[in-house]
C-alpha cells in the first residue's frame, strides 16, 4: 500500500490550499481515509476523515474552513483548506485503514497506512 500526498506549500494567512492524497495497492472504496497534521514540537493531530460513503468528521479547529472529500474512481482524497492561519502550519499526512470505526476516526493509532507528509506553511 502506498499513499502519495501532494499540494502543500507556502501561503499567506487568509489564503487557500488543496491537498491531495492518492492511494495504490488497496481497494480504496473499502478504506477509511483521513488527514492528520503535526506541527513542530507537537503531537500528530486529527484534521478530517471519513469512511467511504459517510459524512466527514472534522477537528473543531478546522470546522467551517476545511473540506474533506474523496473520489473513489481516482483513489484520491482531498483536503480543501480555506482561511488558513499560522496555527495551520504543519506537515499534513494522509492515512488509511480498512477497519477503523467512525468513533475512532480521530485516533492516529487506528491507521495502518500513512503517506509521507506534505508541508503547509502559513505566513503572517
Commentary on this structure:
The chain has strands at 2-6, 9-12, 17-24, 32-38, 45-50, 57-58, 66-71, 76-81, 90-97, 113-114, 118-123. The protein is mostly beta strands and 124 residues long.
Topology summary:
Blueprint: E1 2-6, E2 9-12, E3 17-24, E4 32-38, E5 45-50, E6 57-58, E7 66-71, E8 76-81, E9 90-97, E10 113-114, E11 118-123
Parallel strand pairs: 2-11
Antiparallel strand pairs: 1-3, 3-8, 4-5, 4-9, 5-6, 7-8, 9-10, 9-11
Q: Regions with pLDDT < 50 over 5+ consecutive residues?
A: none
* Class inferred from helices and paired strands: mainly beta
- The fraction of residues assigned to DSSP E strands is over 45%
Helix share of residues? under 10%
Q: What characteristic shape results from the CA principal axes?
A: globular
* Integer average pLDDT: 97
CA radius of gyration is 13 Å
The helix/strand series, from N terminus to C terminus, equals EEEEEEEEEEE
Essential attributes:
124 residues, mainly beta, seven-stranded mixed β-sheet, 0% helix, globular
In short:
By secondary structure, this protein is an all-beta fold.
